[in-house]
Design goal:
Order of helices and strands: HHHHHHHHHH
Radius of gyration: 23 Å
Shape: elongated
Oligomer: single chain
Helix content: 55-70%
Number of strands: 0
Length: about 210
């Protein structure tokens, strides 16, 4: 899964924990020929994990408890639709159609998976290595594409008061309340107003830089 590995490596500089997914990729590659159903099941796990990662990064309202309860297809679709809100260039209709194809991976997992649902031996259904290689390649190509689209998006970061010390100092200077911090009070009591003031401040700085 070279394509996915390569783009994960590119993203590691900004998202240090994303290298975790290489563990799952290794599991896929190590089992794709000898244990096809483990490889297929791992493909599904990789798609689920990266979908949650993308959704979490682009949506500050992401709720892991909600995501963990979602079925495979709705989860991936939700993640892709959220990504499309921030990158209009993504071919979302095509991606969602591919997702419908990938739903069958989830169905195969339920019937053939070796890990998530313990099976009696011998199992009733087995996949062959040609099919597991097909699933691996589909997964690799799709994840490379959506991670490429994600790489063009600045992830939503929850605003922290400590992120903007110069702006906070400016607010406090302009609104002197003695020992009380105006900027801190505004942040804690009216975050919307604080964000608007911050946006105006950043836009002013940008204009000054271009003059």
């Amino acid at each position: 899964m070279k394509q996915t590995k390569d783009i994960l490596e590119q993203l590691e500089a900004e998202y240090s924990n994303i290298d975790y997914y290489n563990i799952i990729i290794d599991k896929i590659e190590n089992n794709v020929n000898d244990n096809p159903d483990i490889a297929i099941e791992s493909c599904k796990a990789l798609l689920e994990g990266i979908s949650k990662f993308i959704w979490n990064q682009v949506d500050s309202a992401y709720d892991s408890a909600v995501a963990d309860k979602m079925d495979f297809h709705p989860l991936v679709r939700k993640s892709m639709n959220k990504l499309a809100e921030f990158n209009e260039d993504i071919e979302i209709d095509f991606v969602n159609k591919i997702n419908k194809l990938i739903v069958s991976i989830g169905e195969l997992r339920n019937r053939r998976g070796d890990i998530s649902h313990g099976k009696l031996s011998p199992k009733d259904y087995f996949s062959d290595s040609q099919f597991s290689n097909l699933v691996m390649n589909i997964t690799d190509n799709m994840l490379h594409y959506v991670l490429h689209c994600f790489s063009k998006v600045k992830a939503v970061k929850e605003l922290a008061y400590e992120d903007n010390p110069e702006f906070n100092e400016k607010l406090d200077t302009e609104n002197d309340f003695g020992f009380l911090s105006y900027s801190k009070a505004l942040f804690e009591q009216d975050i919307v107003a604080y964000e608007q003031e911050l946006q105006d401040y950043l836009e002013t700085l940008e204009l000054e830089e271009h003059e």
